[in-house]
Amino acid sequence: MKPVEINSPQVKVMTSKTNVFMNQSVVFTGQLSSMTRKEAQNLTRQLGGATPPALARNTTYLVIGNGGYLKKITRSQKLKRAEELNEKGAKINIISENLFLEMVGLDTEYKLENKYYVLSDIIKLYPNLRNDRIRYFQRWGLLKPAIKTNTSQYFEFKDLLIFRKIDGYLKQGKPLLAIAKGLRNQIAPIKQLRLPFEEELPRGRILEFRQPSAPQKSVEEWYDIGYENDTTPETYDKAIDAYKNALKLDPNFVPAAINLGNIYYEKGEREKARDLYLHALKLEPHNYKIFFNLGNLYDDLNDFSTALSYFNQAIQQQPLYADAHFNIAIVYEKIGMKQEAQKHWKLYLKIDSCGEWAEIAREHLKES
After folding, report:
1. What backbone torsions phi and psi does residue 90 show, to the nearest 5 degrees?
2. Is 344 inside a domain boundary?
3. Among 12-26, 80-94, 111-125, 186-200, which stretch is predicted with the lowest mean pLDDT?
4. Looking at the structure, do residues 289 and 261 belong to the same domain, yes or no?
5. pLDDT bucket at 12, cuts 50 / 70 / 90
6. Which of 144, 163, 186 is the last residue of a domain?
7. Where is 165: in which H helix or E strand?
8. Given this model, what pLDDT does residue 14 score?
9. More confident site: 281 or 355
10. At 179, which CATH number?
């Protein structure tokens, strides 16, 4: 039998444990820290098991997520139900997420912490690296985790050199821009990744939600379900299904298209996100948030001219959109247009002097 390929948020691996859950019924409860629940269910099915949504007497495993019972010391309804069934003669194995990971051949949180360096520990090691500064250097593409789970970021030993350099430069009082540009010049240039523009898409291509299947809830009800579940990776799959159902009923329901695009963006499925954003933009050509989202997408692909075009269209529609000014400033920095960047740092502070990025903006203005 061929090894099973697993594509989890941890890492893409191959495992020879192809039948570890053969003829087993596995139910999950609580927030998983290593992957989404749907990914865990798919993995279980690949390894021979069944994944019903609810507990029953024939359930053989109840997996408790690290983000749930084991950390919050609370007892979920599924756990209570499993204990009740076991008292009546059922044989449900109640196991932790870590044991589940060991059974399927993936690294537990403990093993990851021994293989890699956790971001929270790195910040303790290098106190000048505040969270906002780390996000800033990540926007420059200088810091990239080797593994990102639902709850943590893990970096390799070689990445510590970058963290240490940044911390050292900050101790010396060097400007953020000088640090970012200096380190970027030390790293081999990344080839620009491009997605086909709208006009380059094959003719006749339509988005998958254009074939309605008549879900029984209303568009608004499906949207509300999606909205309630699109804030954490744990419930992304439920949100995706709900937004898709809303769009099956009404392909022109822009809020669902945008939010679904945002989820795909977070999951790294950029082409799906781009298609949804462009579809929404056709329907609402003056929606500044869609322009902003497209700008972020192309910035991630190092297509800075396209990113700037979309960011600028966002502020044309909404001149007081602080986040767009911040992102424009970073893109101008990346392409060496410092004076243009300074204009947008000032605009950001004028609009939102106490915002999430205000301290970063002030640091840049002090450097000028």
Report:
1. -70, 160
2. yes
3. 186-200
4. no
5. very low
6. 186
7. helix 157-171
8. 40
9. 281
10. 1.10.1660.10
Q: Total domain count for the chain?
A: 4
**pLDDT for res 59:** 92
Residues in the chain: 368
Domain C-terminal end among 186, 217, 244: 186
The one-letter amino acid at 355: G
Q: Residue 196 pLDDT > 70, yes or no?
A: no
Q: Is residue 320 part of a domain?
A: yes
Q: What is the dihedral of CA 242, 243, 244, 246, to 10 degrees?
A: 90
pLDDT category at 50 given cuts 50, 70, 90 is very high
Question: Edge-to-edge strands of the sheet including 61-64?
Answer: 26-29, 61-64, 93-96
Q: Does residue 18 sit in helix, strand or coil?
A: coil
Nearest to 235 by CA among 39, 66, 25: 39
Element (DSSP H or E) covering residue 331:
helix 322-334
User: DSSP for 24-81?
Assistant: -BEEEES--SSS-HHHHHHHHHHTT-B--SS--TT--EEEEPTTTHHHH----HHHHH
Q: Is residue 280 part of a domain?
A: no
Q: Which residues are 94's β-sheet partners?
A: 62
Residue 279 maps to a domain: no
For residues 114 and 156, what is the distance between their CA atoms, to the nearest angstrom?
11
Domain that holds residue 164: 116-186
Q: Judge if 8 and 80 occupy the same domain.
A: yes
- The Cα–Cα gap between 14 and 115 comes to 18
Q: What is the mean pLDDT of the chain?
A: 82
Query: For residue 17, is pLDDT > 90?
Result: no
Q: Give the residue carrying structure tokens 């609402």.
A: 284
* pLDDT value of residue 259: 92
